[in-house]
């Protein structure tokens, strides 16, 4: 929410607040939740948002490397970071805000993470984001604040692993500065330097160096003139709050009082309530306004009434009310600020309430009120109204978050499939309307959006709840899923036929999702039995194979599979053609091929063909999926069945079972020796007959191929 839109909302809130009694209407639910599990999953969400080269210890089987050419347009490596929300742009303003909030939670409640076994995971998340920020800062006074064009990115509804659109890189520099985003990033790096100081001092020093340079850049320019690409998505509306926020974190990381002085010097320029000199208190900590976090930290650091009174005005506004003004509450107890991400605001404020109420400078009566608020808002998010708003946690949790990676459509459409193929564990959805109404609909991006900044304060609030009530995380929890559909397959039908030919219409499909991938080495085999051709005095060489329509395949003549039984196949190879789950023109490719017996003969019999028995046999009818046309990816069988060859002796050297002994078999055998889980035909691979497949067989195969 841009600060420019706040005034209208506040006027509505003022009317609502005056009409409500100044008592907390959101009661604490008596039944506690498994806060350990909720915390565990809320952190896992950030792993699903990762961009770039993913680590070997990732905890899912449906994400993979993506956006591996980010930064190539400007000649530097800008891979990494987090995708913002349900989209795939890397917006550094909300990303750095989110990383700062996570680090703040670790700073406040490290024991909660250690006890719950989640410290490694949240520290990994903090480092993942800040590693990226370091890449984005290749030199002083230069900072890349965004990768990806919001308009182009939002026109695609599919997994990040198969994105094909251009992803431009945007920077600010000394002539075109961006103080808001550079100061927010300085805050993130300074907070990271603080929490990594004991465990990884060298990394802490690196983060601190970049934080100091970015803060200096933001402070000396004090302008957002160059911050343009995020306009309409994350527009900057003032940077003095970010400058105070960053300077405060730098003071905490360095204990250099100059930073504390800097932080306080911007306070007179913070936003104020309309027609007053009172520091704004009727909104909350968020990516666009961090003065609430800054004033809380400054209250604890300086014990000055200015900051204590200001943060208490804000927390009172959210709880019992202040000076006749109070946040609106839904009938079931959610402190409701805005329709767009209502839970994000409530749970983030709940975290701040928890931090402040834990401080000795907070009076016992206010501490009690703020703690009750913390509990009521977190419990609302976790299910106190009968449904959870954290994906994959609790009762009746959201199944259709507005997140293209989780839905994993292969057709570039939100309605296909009509379900999410992946569970986006831990994501906090936007939340209900002001009357508690909520529809679990992927199309509803207001109520069902998820984002890095939505979870940022939520994680901290959950850590507070775990600190008080405990809860058992799921041991060794991972998002390892069973596939809900076939990823690769062929749909086929008879296109035309006569007594001397058969023409097949076939569509090879890539609906991959575990993980999604671009297939540029896909192929399939169509099997035929030419016994009738042989009986008529002909051979496989007399059969002509031709194409009528072709979207990128190389179609072979008949290749022997089991010559003794007259079983052959047509190899249809789409290598070099990108087939990927990215929309109707891309997730499947068509080919029409004709197999014809010698001219003026009528000896073609389809009934004994292995692959024919699985397809639509009436010409012109809709093709159907068949497992009798097997699909291969880079020579490895990934779907379907093949005719048996049990009575045939092994064809030594035909490692990939394509009927030929060539360099592809050598490559397949190499892969098997490096990784025994790689699928090859073992009986064809033991060339020296020692009942083992190893480098000796590879050496013999090389000699066979050369000769």
Describe the structure in your own words:
- With 707 residues, the protein is an alpha+beta fold.
- 36% of the residues lie in helices and 12% in strands.
- It has 19 helices and 15 strands.
- It has helices spanning 6-19, 35-48, 92-116, 119-135, 150-153, 179-195, 201-221, 240-254, 257-265, 291-302, 305-318, 342-357, 364-382, 404-407, 445-448, 452-469, 531-535, 663-674, 695-706, and strands at 90-91, 142-147, 169-173, 328-329, 335-336, 488-498, 501-510, 522-529, 544-550, 554-562, 567-573, 588-596, 624-626, 631-633, 636-639.
- The strands form four sheets. The chain has a five-stranded antiparallel β-sheet with strand order 9-12-7-6-13, with no helix packed on it. The chain has a five-stranded antiparallel β-sheet with strand order 10-11-8-14-15, with no helix packed on it. Strands 1-2-3 form a three-stranded antiparallel β-sheet.
- β4 (328-329) and β5 form a beta hairpin.
- The N and C termini lie far apart (70 Å).
- The model is unreliable at 1-30 (pLDDT under 50).
What features would you highlight for this structure?
707 residues, alpha+beta, 5-stranded antiparallel beta sheet, 15 strands, 36% helix, 12% strand, elongated
In short:
With 707 residues, this protein is of the alpha+beta class. It contains 19 helices and 15 strands.
